[in-house]
Amino acid sequence: MNIRKFLCVNKFINAAEISIGVLAWIWLRCIGSRRVVLLAYHSISYSPWIHAVSPELFSLQMNWLKKYTKPIPVSEALVTARSGQIFMRRPIVGITFDDGYADWIEHAGPILQSHLLPATFFVVTSFTLVTSVPQIGLSPMQPELVSKLSSQGFTIGSHTHLHHDLSNCSDTELVNELTRSRNILEHLTGKNVSELSYPKGRFRASSFSIVEQSGYKLAVAGHGSVTYGVPIYAIPRLPITKDVSFRLFRARVLRLAAWGF
After folding, report:
1. Where are the domains positioned within the chain?
2. Class assignment of domain 3-259?
3. What is the pTM of this model?
């Protein structure tokens, strides 16, 4: 397929997604939904990395969420979804971030605060011990920034200590990844840390008991919407990347809230 055909196909797919989003909006207003959408961000910056969303685009997204959805903390979103209640008109949304970058303080936090939006920031604690992440050209959060983010009222969660793929870890390695990260974060924040994000969304279902015994009350993972009966240690999210336009963002949130795909 040449580049012109690829662009035409991509344009058609995007237009179809946006049209489906309009139908989802009508569905939500007329019929409602039992689903909750958790958004997964990484960096809010001008980095060329695919997982870096510009501050301007992020601000547009947050402004829309404030006006047309009901953003709530992740822990509340889980309880709400598992209640089986039907939500009318305004989709229920939770906002999360993975890894731990300095731009959370510079861009993400201030934008969220300006819209009075709650969020959970999942931190890789080994990132706080280095001065840069050379693979993507971003500055990691230093320990004092983690403390500052927590003091601003945001929830701090664990993204493990070394960001290893937990589906390939032994039970001993898993316990170390979970407890070491949690202990460091609790020391930095002075608060209980009970929310976990699996690196790259990967996990072993057989490890849920270890996650629970390590002090976590919930864990977020791969793609999807949160609905009644979802496992509390495998909660799906919607990844948001720089190639998702504002119109596509709205359409995908609405589609996932309405139908779960």
Report:
1. 3-259
2. alpha beta
3. 0.91
